[in-house]
Specification:
The protein is of the alpha+beta class. The chain is built from six helices and six strands, in the order αβαββαβαααββ. It is globular, with a radius of gyration of 20 Å. The termini are far apart. Keywords: Oxidoreductase. This is L-gulonolactone oxidase. Pfam families: ALO, GULLO2-like_3rd.
C-alpha cells in the first residue's frame, strides 16, 4: 500500500521484488500485469545455476574464460544486465547445504517456447553446464536447472543418505514427494530421458546427432575446452 518515493530502498524482499507497480495494480485487463505472469506471453527464459567449491572456483573461471575467448560473441546469449551472476555462499551443516564455502554462478538465457528449437551458441552454455557439474562437481540449484545438472547430485552430499532417511521418517506417505523429487534424490528411475532432441532441452547429454537437431544443422560434438563434454553444436 506504499508508494516508492526515494532511495535508499529498504524493506522485505517480497515487497521489493516487483516490476513497476504490477503487483498491486488495479484490475485493468492485464495491461499492468507483471512480466512473469503466466497468463500473458511476456518474459520467457531459462536459468542454469550451480555452486562451485571455493578451492575449484579459480580453475573453473579460467576454463570458462578460455572457452569464451574462442568466440567472445557466444556470451551475447545470456542476460545483458547480469552477465554471469556470481555470489559468495558459505558452508552449511544442513543435510543438503553447501559442502564448503564456494561461489554460486547464475546464467540466465533465452529459450524458445518450442523445445525442439536450437539456441544460438547452445554448445557453449552446455559445455559450461557440464564443466561445472561433472568436471568440478558443482552442486545444482534445486529450482533452476535442467535434468543434466541433477545427474548424480545426491552423491555430492556427505549427508545425502541421512536426508533421505529423515524425509521418509517425517513423510512416510510421500505427500511432499513427486516423481521428479524421487528422481533427483536417486530414489526412482533415472534423470536422463534419451530421445530425439533430448540434448537441446538438457534431458540428456547427447551421444548421437539425433539427440540434437541435425535437420537444423546442430550435431553432437565434444567440448572445445572440456573434452569430455558432449554438446549440440551448430556446424
Amino acid at each position: 500500500g506504499l508508494t516508492f518515493t526515494a532511495y535508499p530502498v529498504i524493506g522485505y524482499h517480497n515487497h521489493l521484488q516487483a516490476s513497476g507497480s504490477c503487483l498491486d495494480s488495479a484490475s485493468d485487463g492485464l495491461i499492468t500485469a507483471c512480466p512473469w505472469d503466466s497468463r500473458i506471453k511476456a518474459q520467457f527464459f531459462h536459468q542454469t545455476s550451480f555452486s562451485i567449491a571455493l578451492s575449484d572456483a579459480k580453475d573453473f573461471i579460467h576454463d570458462v574464460q578460455t572457452l569464451v575467448a574462442l568466440d567472445p560473441r557466444s556470451m551475447c546469449v545470456i542476460d545483458q544486465y547480469n552477465g554471469i551472476l556470481i555470489r559468495y555462499v558459505t558452508a552449511s551443516n544442513a543435510y543438503l547445504g553447501k559442502q564448503e564455502d564456494g561461489l554460486d554462478f547464475d546464467l540466465t538465457y533465452y529459450r524458445s517456447k518450442d523445445p525442439a528449437m536450437p539456441r544460438l551458441f547452445e554448445d557453449v552454455l552446455e559445455e559450461i553446464e557440464q564443466m561445472a557439474v561433472f568436471k568440478y562437481g558443482g552442486l545444482p540449484h534445486w529450482g533452476k536447472n535442467r535434468n543434466v545438472a541433477f545427474e548424480g547430485a545426491m552423491r555430492k552430499y556427505k549427508q545425502g543418505e541421512e536426508f533421505v532417511r529423515v524425509k521418509e521418517e517425517y513423510d512416510p506417505l510421500g505427500l511432499f514427494s513427486s516423481d521428479w523429487t524421487d528422481q533427483v534424490l536417486g530414489l526412482r528411475g533415472g534423470l536422463m530421458i534419451v530421445r530425439d532432441g533430448c540434448g537441446l532441452e538438457g534431458l540428456c547429454v547427447c551421444l548421437e546427432d539425433r539427440h540434437c537437431a541435425p535437420g537444423e544443422g546442430f550435431f553432437c560434438r565434444p567440448g572445445k575446452v572440456y573434452k569430455n563434454a558432449r554438446v549440440c553444436r551448430n556446424i
